[in-house]
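Worked problem 6 (solution included).
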Amino acid sequence: MKRLETDSLGKIAVNTTHYWGAQTERALLHFKIGSEPMPPEVIMALALVKKAAAKVNADLSILKKNKAAAITRVCDEILANKLTHHFPLTIWQSGSATQTNMNINEVIANRATKLQKGKISDKKFLHPNDDVNMSQSSNDVFPTAMHLATALLLTKKLLPAIKNLRQELSIISKKFNRVLKVGRTHLQDALPLTIGQEFSGYTAQIDLAIRTIENSLPYLQDLAIGGTAVGTGLNSPPNFGKKVAQELTKLTGTKFKSAPNKFCMLAAHDALLIASGALKTLATILFKITNDIRWLASGPYCGLGELILPSNEPGSSIMPGKVNPSQCEVMLMVCAQVIGNDSVVSFANSQGNFELNVFKPIIIYNVIQAINLLSNACSSLVKNALKGIKVNHKKLADYFANSLMTVTALNPIIGYDKSCEIAKYAARHRVSLRTACDKLGYKNLNLDQLITQKLRR
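Solution. The predicted structure is:
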């Protein structure tokens, strides 16, 4: 069954089971490109914006109270995931995301009309443009939703996941703080350290990533709402943006404020680029940490074999008993994707022309995908790899006993030249440093004890 919906271009048939209207239907016809949906987090953020705007418009007595209540009721249904299938558009649409803004306007208007027992699409009770979109433009609504969605995801999903990862790394660091191992620089044997010290470095890197992400949040708290089409605020009441930001703060529990300059908020998305850069920083950090763990667990017999990862699933379809570091591998792929996402966001943000950046959908798609991927990958790594990690004490002891670089600890005692003599003798004769010391007449040097004391003090 079909019904006729109208817009400025005329009439178009829409399936009667759908709440969207003419502009959404035209977008489905004219943008048959890709399958990447507008992120649900953006739809939720738009519902919050529409709810807040309706409240402010009603408080200003320019929208009737019953209309504001109807908008609020439908927005609450959207926020409760009851109308998800009525938002079918992909990110491949107008660069201002006008189609998605109208999609939610139409759904709210038609759903509210149905709840009022009215005829869907007649627009008599609630008009998608005049009422739902009152005091707004796609050009300020969508950037506001972009900031809202990103800030909420960072604070409520990603940061908790990273902090949980950081805690697990810290636990490992403390658990194995006295376990000695050989260090490596330039992929060659180097001075020894402890497993705990090695993992403390990872923990410190995550601390930096957390600070970087937290530092991006204030930029996201500035909202474009109130700027309408080009930033002047034409057709919006005075202080509309400020009042909507205050209402969004109440609705989310997260501080938001009206941006002091709306022109830059529409023409560029620098705050999202900063956030994306913080995500890229986290991705490069996680890549280094995870790759280290993967290599340290390589083997089990013909690799480094210092760490033992949990066995979660078979690793080969042909080699019986093989287990792979799959949690590390998936994290590495996620990090590669996030680094690529940041490149897209960087280029897209550079493409603001005059008063509007028209790469908005692809910017927010890549930022939200990066946040979700990193959040899920961090949680998976903790649960399926880090919590069950073990150390191979025998392998660590063998490496430590045979490493020549521990001779460096003798430099302050016998000097660099004599230390080199010991190291060369040990390498040439394939003996331990202790044996080399004894053979060369340095029998009173207890190198193992010296190293242990220095590392554990």
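Discussion: The mean pLDDT is 94.
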